[in-house]
Amino acid sequence: MKKLFRLMAVFVLLVISVQIGRVMSQSCEVGGILSIDTVWDPGTCAVYRASNSVLVSSGVSLTIAPGTTVEFDSQKGLEIRGTLIAQGTSSAPIRFTSSAASPMPGDWAGIAFVSPQEFTPINGGTIQYATIEYAGGGNVNPLEVDRRAAVRVYSAFPTIENVTIRESLTSGLYVWGTSSPYISNNQVVNNHQSGIHIEGIGIQAMAPIMVSNNMIAGNGSANTDAGGGIDINGTPTTIRGNTVTGNAACHGGGIRFSSSGLIENNVIAGNSAPCVPFLESGNGGGIVYTGFETIIRNNVITGNQANNSGGAFYIRLSSPSAGQLTGNLISNNSAKIKGGGLFIVCCSVPDIAANSIVDNTVEQTNQGGGVYCYWETCPITGNNIYHNLSGSPAITPNDFTNGHAAGIPDINAENNYWGTTDQGIIEAQVYHFVDDASLALVDYLPFLNQPIPLTFPSFSVNHSSGAPGSYFTVVGSSFPAGETISVEVNGFSLADVPSGVNGEFTLILSTTSADEGNYQVSGVGYPSASDSFRLQIGETVWDQEGTGPVFELPAGIAVSEHLVFLPTVLTP
Fold this sequence. Notes:
Elements: H1 2-25, E1 27-34, E2 38-40, E3 47-56, E4 61-64, E5 69-72, E6 77-80, E7 83-87, E8 94-98, E9 110-114, E10 124-133, E11 149-154, E12 159-166, E13 171-176, E14 182-184, E15 187-189, E16 196-199, E17 209-212, E18 215-217, E19 230-233, E20 237-240, E21 243-245, E22 255-258, E23 261-264, E24 267-269, E25 272-273, E26 287-289, E27 294-297, E28 300-302, E29 305-306, E30 313-317, E31 323-326, E32 329-331, E33 334-335, E34 342-347, E35 351-353, E36 356-358, E37 361-362, E38 371-374, E39 384-386, E40 389-390, E41 396-397, E42 400-402, E43 411-412, H2 423-429, E44 430-431, E45 442-443, E46 458-461, E47 465-466, E48 471-477, E49 484-489, E50 492-498, E51 505-510, E52 517-524, E53 529-535, E54 550-552
Parallel strand pairs: 1-3, 2-4, 3-5, 3-6, 4-7, 5-8, 6-9, 7-10, 8-10, 9-11, 10-12, 11-13, 12-14, 12-15, 13-16, 14-17, 15-18, 16-19, 17-20, 18-21, 19-22, 20-23, 21-24, 22-26, 23-27, 24-28, 25-29, 26-30, 27-31, 28-32, 29-33, 30-34, 31-35, 32-36, 33-37, 34-38, 36-39, 37-40, 38-42, 42-44, ...
Antiparallel strand pairs: 40-41, 46-48, 48-51, 49-50, 49-52, 52-53
């Protein structure tokens, strides 16, 4: 009898276990307005299926646990007016995807962070270690179709980190209004419009945005208007340490930048502007720069192609404060019409110095294999400009072409290295008044007898985060030797330190008095460099490492929610 009882008990437990397993593995249907804090986790439901759109109300949080899968029916989406905490892990990422049996781009709308009041931004929360795929759909006013994206940020500042955003019918990420998201270490790939599109107008453009260490690849097409990889319009932005490759757009295949900010330490390679040449169409295979007060430095810009002009750069500026173009390697780019490397037109020109502009080509003979300048002031001094060709096939040496009419001031192209010390050969590589009396002169005398070494100043902090009370060691290298480097933290002038014989220096930051928040440390010289760290209670308290002068960070200068101070634009 006891044996029979034990067998019956085991049977009942097995039945209960099977039933629980069925509940935990089933698909749970979700949708509607969340008015209380909610948790989704894979231990409760294997899949959360949004048969209706989900709205997280103001003051409410939705927490999504690692390993959770959320599927969305056609045109449905997730809107955050409160807080989203979607923190997966590298081994258990969160997945936002289509519920269709055969998913396609545009199956569902996407994830939107939206402030109920346009000029009162919300935090919005965090998405980390997640995949967002097959979004970018929904019925939208045709005039606002460019505002559709897999992830949309309207007046919010969420953290988007270690996320794969792919196969959107429109853009991967769209940012608008008084927003300042933190966008770092993401894979933004194979989206049908811009990979990242950031837009602001007037007062909305007051919050600087950081886009750092992302892979932005295979986005856009000939149907994309501008900025296949990254499109910045009106919002101060730092673009740092990204790989921007294989993207396409009619105007700015890799990046379209129409704002102020900083573009540094990126690889911008293999992008294209494939559209039929017409006005602005087909220009800027690598970068279209129509902004102001922007430093573009220490980038590798190679293998980009424009069906019109500006294989690497298309520069059209109207601000008298044009910024800097310095320390870049601009090589193996091509254009069909003008400017295989750089095409510069109207109405001011950034300081173009210490770049290597080499091995670029243009199909039209003598139309600027390296540089084509169509403006009366086009100072390009202290660069390496050589081995650039024109023609089809590209066999005619053509490092520089002045496309402006005769009778205006000469173009200042002094103190460049042209790959030779033979003035006759240099003359043959420059197309200007000497070759065509209708064109203005390029003044390339004197010229350098040896190439300029292309060294990129760097500024590194030994830890990316720590608790208040930590010590951070800051190392600068490859700055101008024997110069005074001004060190700023979030725009606060901290100290002036001398660089050594190799352009190096070290200093220690003490955070005993500092507040929680984000800190950007900048070594401001010519050129400049910067790095950043975050102070947060609960992180490691770091002891001092290395030697150097110790400077105490004062209270009151921390920047919350990932705002970034841009370094000052200086001229040599």
